[in-house]
Write a structure and sequence with these properties.
The protein is of the alpha+beta class. It contains 6 helices and 12 strands. It folds into 2 domains: 93 residues, Aminotransferase class 4, branched-chain amino acid transferase, N-terminal domain (D-amino Acid Aminotransferase, Chain A, domain 1, 2-Layer Sandwich); 140 residues, Alpha-Beta Barrel (D-amino Acid Aminotransferase, Chain A, domain 2), CATH 3.20.10. It starts with a strand and ends with a strand.
Length: 248
């Protein structure tokens, strides 16, 4: 979650209620107690007022990033759910996620490791969803790529380490927006949800479906993939201009 200062000087966040909903959904999957939305919003407002003087000017595209952590708070070492939990927030001043004035990204497909598979926690906001990305992202960076593209069960496009993925596909005379289905496969971010809502409201042809990675190269060669982009509160909406799959 981020806090922004608008051109009018007003401090805003983006879809806090959606993020609280995903927070409670995640802690429920880990058998931890839920948190009250009203209390969370009051705490967020108090935090924003207290640190308002630290918020970057709107012209800098900077913000205060809030990392929300929930951990079990009981006097037992049992590996089980908990009746009590503590929520903490770490705030830090950040600029654009990708360095410099970059307007697009290059991605590397991870073919050896998996984080998106049947039975995984890829759809849950938890450390189990983030920890597997660290080493592959380091490899991607060393190879000159901005982030890693993950596959579902080693076969289908899933998501990036830092966001969801969309493509604009030419099917006959029609252009259709495609994104992988979220259920049990990937984390459904708030930007993803907003993009889908706009696409449907604007009556643009749209479909959630699995796209085999082996088909992507041919679709690009045939000129059928017109555009690919990522979404997420880290990266906003960012075009993808290059995909490295098995060093091709």
């Amino acid at each position: 979650m981020k806090l922004y200062k608008g051109v009018d000087g007003i401090i805003r966040t983006y879809r806090a209620d959606y993020k609280w909903f995903k927070l409670n959904d995640g802690v429920s999957k880990l058998v931890l107690p839920n948190f009250d939305f009203e209390i969370l919003n009051r705490c967020l407002s108090k935090f924003a007022r207290h640190y308002a003087h630290l918020l970057p000017d709107s012209k800098t595209n900077g913000s205060i990033y809030l990392r929300i952590n929930v951990f079990e708070d009981t006097n037992t070492l049992e590996i089980s759910g908990a009746g009590e939990a503590t929520l903490s927030v770490i705030g830090s001043i950040v600029g654009p996620y990708y360095a410099g004035t970059r307007k697009h990204i290059k991605v590397r497909v991870e073919t050896e490791r998996m984080k998106n598979f049947d039975g995984s926690l890829a759809y849950v906001k938890s450390s189990a969803n983030y920890a597997p990305t660290h080493l592959p992202d380091a490899i991607s960076s060393k190879m000159g790529y901005d982030t890693t593209l993950w596959l579902y069960n080693h076969l289908y496009l899933a998501e990036l380490s830092v966001g969801n993925i969309f493509m604009v596909l030419k099917e006959g005379s029609e252009r259709k927006v495609i994104t992988p289905p979220a259920k049990y496969i990937l984390f459904p971010g708030s930007f993803r949800d907003a993009i889908i809502t706009m696409i449907i409201d604007w009556e643009i042809p749209f479909e959630e479906r699995l796209v085999p990675i082996c088909d992507v190269k041919q679709l690009i060669a045939d000129g059928k993939i017109l555009e690919m982009f990522s979404t997420g509160h880290y990266v906003m909406v960012t075009p993808i201009v290059e995909i490295n799959y098995k060093n091709e």
